[in-house]
Design goal:
Blueprint lengths: L12 E5 L18 E6 L17 E7 L11 E2 L10 E2 L12 E14 L2 E7 L8 E7 L2 H4 L18 E4 L1 H14 L3 H10 L13 E6 L2 E8 L2 E9 L1
Parallel strand pairs: 9-12
Antiparallel strand pairs: 1-2, 1-8, 2-7, 3-6, 3-8, 4-5, 6-7, 10-11, 11-12
Length: 237
């Protein structure tokens, strides 16, 4: 029997994301252009020399832990949302968080590197990562080898081409304007692009009901009416 070493994997950083809850997170990175956050590097990896040269790359790979899935345990088969949550496939044929080692992989856009009195941070965008996600490794994205022409996506279809209308109530419009002036965060664009991906479970897409979603430090109440989404109210948490 082959014996494998048992290295101790410790987080080298933590994600500070616009998505404080799982509901609303896009199913893949790159789909919501206005999503953003920071990767805070932790000791002993918060050293400037460890990211020297990284700013030459537009995108980076982030390897992370699905930390909220650990208490639920891993599963040999899962029901991917791409198949309507009805058909099971092997966990290794999916991107489910319920994996034997709970490891995830995501490519994000690197928008800057910042070092101040609070630490060393990578500014990232177009992400699909939950706030407080532990990061275990970072690698540069290399276009010629990481993007394979003609690769097959299996049962996972390309992004939907359905055009969804997102409408803001007067109160939500005023809140977004005042919030953006105060924080500099593109809240209205973030809400619109997130809802355009239709975050509802497949089983609920025929229902007309009100939903709640947390983005940054606000709660968003919205309603889906077919392919039309109405943002009803936004409040601070």
């Amino acid at each position: 029997m082959i014996e494998f070493p048992s290295p101790i994997i410790s987080p080298i950083g933590i994600i500070h994301s616009c998505y404080p809850e799982k509901f609303g997170i896009p199913r893949q990175p790159g789909l919501v252009k206005s999503s953003s956050g920071r990767l805070e590097l932790l000791p002993p990896c918060n050293r400037e020399e460890m990211v020297r040269g990284l700013d030459a790359f537009s995108h980076i790979w982030i390897q992370f832990l699905f930390h909220e899935a650990v208490v639920e345990g891993w599963r040999p088969t899962v029901r991917p949302p791409w198949l309507g949550g009805q058909k099971r496939v092997g966990v290794f044929a999916s991107r489910s968080p319920h994996r034997p080692n709970y490891l995830g992989l995501s490519v994000v856009r690197l928008t800057g590197i910042c070092q101040d009195n609070h630490g060393l941070f990578l500014e990232i965008a177009e992400l699909d990562l939950l706030d407080q996600t532990p990061v275990v490794d970072i690698k540069p994205y290399v276009p010629y080898s990481d993007s394979i022409v003609g690769a097959s996506g299996g049962f996972i279809p390309p992004p939907e081409s359905v055009e969804r209308e997102v409408v803001f109530s007067e109160a939500a419009t005023i809140f977004c304007r005042e919030y953006e002036q105060r924080t500099g965060r593109r809240l209205r664009s973030l809400i619109s692009e997130t809802l355009e991906q239709d975050p509802r479970p497949a089983s609920q897409r025929r229902q007309i009901r009100e939903y709640g979603m947390a983005l940054w430090d606000v709660n968003v109440r919205w309603q889906a009416q077919g392919e039309r989404f109405l943002v009803l109210m936004i409040t601070e948490k």
